[in-house]
Write a structure and sequence with these properties.
The complex is a heterodimer of chains A (107) and B (122).
Chain A (H helix, E strand, L loop, with lengths): L3 E4 L2 E4 L5 E7 L7 E6 L6 E5 L3 E2 L7 E6 L2 E6 L9 E6 L6 E2 L3 E5 L1
Chain B lengths: L2 E5 L3 E2 L5 E8 L8 E8 L6 E7 L4 E3 L7 E6 L4 E6 L8 E9 L7 E4 L3 E5 L2
Parallel strand pairs in B: 2-11
Antiparallel strand pairs in B: 1-3, 3-8, 4-5, 4-9, 5-6, 7-8, 9-10, 9-11
Classes of the chains: A mainly beta (107), B mainly beta (122).
Chain lengths: 107, 122
């Protein structure tokens, strides 16, 4: 099984801040890495796929990078609607797996 | 616009079988090359992938649940279904259905249902 580990688990930031969330895979997953945003009581929403491709309709302040085992999600300038929980997910293995989540809170 | 909607009992007794259906609208479940998945999330916890069915009908399951899970598709109703047998309180969670495009790089889950809470309790 491929384990996905996100850091930090939680993060406090202010509107306008630049924020980076890290996701590490237990083995190389090439670029088979996706990022989702989830707000309370809602289904996850796809933000980034294939490590760095922006999903249609997602604001350009979201970006992703990395390959192999180390990946990052960056929000260039936090907006009020960005406070949520973020998950990475690998699709390299048929046994898909998610990171444990990073909760982004308002400072 | 593709939409997915989960349905099924919100309360299941221990040792019984949990049965959920995902109805797909805005597109045919059998056209194109799609993976149709079930994913669950216990309250306050992370996401766990349960399994998927391909447009062709082939399936893949999470090994941790494989002995108890069956995913099937009914193309005539544009639905796919989840059955999870011998449930315990540990199976209490919000259950989501989701779609992934097989040919898309890294096959992300691009459409999700809104989720349905299933509680296992006597």
């Amino acid at each position: 099984d491929i384990q996905m580990t996100q850091s930090p688990s939680s993060l406090s930031a202010s509107v306008g801040d630049r924020v980076t969330i890290t996701c590490r895979a237990s083995q190389s997953i090439s670029s088979y890495l996706n990022w989702y945003q989830q707000k309370p009581g809602k289904a996850p929403k796809l933000l980034i796929y294939a490590a760095s491709s922006l999903q249609s309709g997602v604001p350009s302040r979201f970006s992703g990078s990395g390959s192999g085992t180390d990946f990052t999600l960056t929000i260039s300038s936090l907006q009020p609607e960005d406070f949520a929980t973020y998950y990475c997910q690998q699709s390299y293995s048929t046994l898909y797996s998610f990171g444990q989540g990073t909760k982004l809170e308002i400072k | 616009q593709v939409q997915l909607q989960e349905s099924g009992p919100g309360l299941v007794k221990p040792s019984q079988t949990l049965s959920l259906t995902c109805t797909v609208s805005g597109g045919s479940i059998s056209s194109g090359s799609y993976y149709w998945s079930w994913i669950r999330q216990p309250a306050g916890k992370g996401l766990e992938w349960i399994g998927r069915i391909y447009t062709s009908g082939s399936t893949n399951y999470n090994p941790s649940l494989k002995s108890r899970v069956t995913i099937s598709v009914d193309t005539s109703k544009n639905q796919f279904s989840l059955k999870l047998s011998s449930v315990t309180a540990a199976d209490t969670a919000v259950y989501y259905c989701a779609r992934a495009v097989a040919a898309r790089p890294s096959s992300p889950f691009d459409y999700w249902g809104q989720g349905t809470l299933v509680t296992v309790s006597s």
